[in-house]
Amino acid sequence: MANLKTNPNVSDTLKATATRLPDREAIYDESRRMTYGELDQEVTNLAKGLIRIGVASGDRVAVALTNSCEYVTAFFAIARVGAVLIPLNPFFNKEESAYILQQAGAKALFCDAESYYSELHQEIETLSTLISVRFQAADYMNYAELLVGHKSEEVRIVPTEDLFAIMFTSGTTGRPKGAMLTHENVLFSAMAGSNRMKCIEEDAFLIPNPLFHVMGVTFILRATYCGGKLVIMQKYSVKNALALIESEKVSVHPGVPTMFILELNSPDFDNYDLSSLRTGEMAAAPCPVEIVKQIRSKMNCNVLVAYGSTETAATLTMTGFDDDDTLRSETV
């Protein structure tokens, strides 16, 4: 596994796992599968493509993508060149997106829908390049174009203890504010959380949450750190979550309490084999003790409850496997 002290760049975590487990499946996003070796190579190619269009260490690169393999690839490629990730909710309206892009000084933007981004390209001075993912349009450089035409040698991973990402909070007390997270911040949180959950390379992680949220960052890195598989839901639905747990042998199920409640109450619940579940992390809201009991008894999931925030690189505290149901439910 990657070592925090000797691998201060997020991308080193992927490189270490790809070297150790090149043929192990890393991602399934309901339409595409990638091994760790394939993911690492695509990250390298994309990093070279970013360098070719002028992205350098310290530049801000926004990612307005729905959950996908391409999101994870961009996540690591941006880190690999030492640039700064700006996760952007792809469902924001024009004003919301413009505010974050201007505040961050974004130089490039990944997106998977044409939307209003061409207008922002003209209006925001720093925004020099739009990168389209899974669609073609004028004024956009296509993701696939960035992956080709490179020499075979590896791109140099930029060692850095500086910014990994600027993640904008929900803005409950005003306009969204950018939380500045370093590589060390997110790696320490991910490694500590993975160790707390006793994650291993045989684990498969269901990802029902949006990857642009800090919880998405946490679980991309937890899975990569231990060599597990990310089972990415492009859009959450109860029936599909249950189906994926069965078909992909999911063992780790993170989510918010509402997701677990909907799954437990689903009329299809008894139609699926959930015996692969081992643990999970429930966060973002309190959960009644009765629900914690049902998750553990009916779903076979020894769920842990966590508390954190964007500013703390997600998880700050987490219950343990030996804690009782009441302590878990009252922790948040």
Write the layout of secondary structure elements.
Layout: H1 10-20, E1 25-28, E2 33-35, H2 36-52, E3 60-64, H3 69-80, E4 84-87, H4 94-104, E5 106-111, H5 117-123, E6 129-132, E7 141-142, H6 143-146, E8 163-168, E9 178-182, H7 183-196, E10 204-207, H8 214-226, E11 229-232, H9 238-247, H10 257-264, E12 279-282, H11 289-298, E13 302-309, E14 314-318, H12 325-331
Helix pairs in contact: 1-2, 1-3, 1-8, 2-3, 7-8, 10-11, 11-12
Characterize the structure shown.
The chain has 332 residues and is an alpha/beta fold. The protein is 37% helix and 19% strand. It is built from 12 helices and 14 strands. The protein has helices spanning 10-20, 36-52, 69-80, 94-104, 117-123, 143-146, 183-196, 214-226, 238-247, 257-264, 289-298, 325-331; strands at 25-28, 33-35, 60-64, 84-87, 106-111, 129-132, 141-142, 163-168, 178-182, 204-207, 229-232, 279-282, 302-309, 314-318. It has a 5-stranded parallel sheet with strand order 4-3-5-6-7, with helices on both faces. The protein has a 4-stranded mixed sheet with strand order 2-1-11-10, sandwiched between helices. Strand 1 and strand 2 (33-35) form a beta hairpin. Helix 10 (257-264) packs across helix 11. The longest helix has 17 residues, at 36-52. The radius of gyration is 19 Å and the shape is globular. The model has no long low-confidence stretch (mean pLDDT 90).
Number of strands: 14
List the helices and strands in order. Answer: HEEHEHEHEHEEHEEHEHEHHEHEEH
Q: What class would the helix/strand composition place it in?
A: alpha/beta
Helix count, DSSP H or I runs of 4 or more residues: 12
- Please state roughly what percent of the residues sit in beta strands, choosing from under 5%, 5-15%, 15-25%, 25-35%, 35-45% or over 45%: 15-25%
Termini distance? Answer: 30 Å
Mean pLDDT: 90
Would you identify the regions where 5 or more consecutive residues have pLDDT less than 50?
A: none
Strand order of the largest sheet: 4-3-5-6-7
- Largest sheet geometry: 5 strands, parallel
Overall geometry: globular
Radius of gyration: 19 Å
Helix content percent band: 25-40%
